[in-house]
Amino acid sequence: MKKTSSRDRLIIFGRYPVPGNTKTRLIPALGPVGAASLQRHLTEKIFLTAKEFATRHKATIECCFEGGTPQKIRRWLGPIPTLSFQQAGDLGQRMRSALFDALNEGSKRVVLLGTDITGLNIQILKNAFDALLVNDIVLGPSTDGGYWLMGLKRPIDLFQQIDWSTPRVLDQTLAQARHMNLTVHLLEFLSDMDTPEDLRRWQPDEDVPEIFLTVVIPAFNEEDHIHRSILGATDRDVEVVVVDGGSTDGTVSRAESLIRSQSLNARVVHSPLGRARQQNYGAAVAKGENLLFLHADTLLPEGYVNQVFETLMAPGAVLGAFRFKTDFRRPLMRLVEWVTHLRSRYLRLPYGDQAIFMKRSIFERVGGFPMVPIGEDLLLVRHLVKHENVRVLLAMGTAVTSGRRWKTLGPLKTTWINFSVLVGMAMGISLQTLSRLYRRSS
Fold first, then answer.
1. CATH number of the domain residue 268 falls in
2. 440 pLDDT higher than 70
3. How deeply is 143 buried, as exposed, middle or buried, from its count of CB atoms within 10 A (0-12, 13-18, 19+)?
4. Which of 59, 193, 194, 381 has CB atoms 3.0–4.6 Å from 54's, for a disulfide?
5. Residues 164 and 119 reside in one and the same domain
């Protein structure tokens, strides 16, 4: 057999995952972000298989995508030799343009495959290119009556008068090929992942969590804020876990009453008092693929789930936070917010009241928040940046924290206390000492 040359091209024909616009038939089963997360998962696996194949067999990879921007796609998938965007028209017109463009640019064998399939491996891709040595066309038939791969070695128009997105696609394509006296090689049948029925039949290589995100809310005597924080975190793709540390006010009763009355995907659990301890307990009982730690007096921005999804798509971006803002509207607070933004962006040290979020696998690997009386958020982030070599990214939205401390103590004193704790931690002063100073000053 002739070896694959560098003029062979493998086109990954996909879509940039956007919650609500991706895998829409799976939204009733998985939710908007869950469906987009599955699309991302499938695309990444296809891309990794394609890269390994291309390295072994000296093929060129082209990602031909719909949606997104070059910056977003490369931030997500990393370096891509060739990146293009799908042309206008129906599915057939878009595939035709991608295949014909590659052939007209000098590629000798071109194979185009979708990102909705499971079961792809390097041998199947090799079989597809080898089949084009002795056949006009290679097709990867799907179990739903369509095809997940098409390969050509010259421009052949098999895209007219096809009832796209129906079980007739493969038969109609084969009928056209027979009419044109073309030889066709069929690969093995694979399954697309388009409908809830496909999802039920699928046996994944690794589990894809049904819940994209768990919001963990540590609470202690927060009856004035817990109602709004729970509602602000509620979303189709989210579970909310309120971890009460032994409140003596109406925090628990208000939270449980709200959850029951509105049938929210939320629950109240109990742990010993201590923010680090409460947050670790919430993470331990969480079901989500990712974790977001929300202070009970902080409100998340509208559409925050999509922002978490987008932020964590970047390779290495396993931790993020939102911009900081308080509801205490004073000129000096604008300066505080601006300085906090600079610290978060350039020093990579967001505070806990910026609603830190991260991949659950990383949180578990580092052992969660350190069990300290103060500064557990900064210590965790600092550890991740130093030892895990992760990137800290800021989402576009703003988390709004209650300005009650600034109102009570004044902006200058509160800022000075926070700064003193930060400097004290950097100098290695005992956290017990800093905790006592913090509470005495407050």
1. 3.90.550.10
2. no
3. middle
4. 59
5. yes
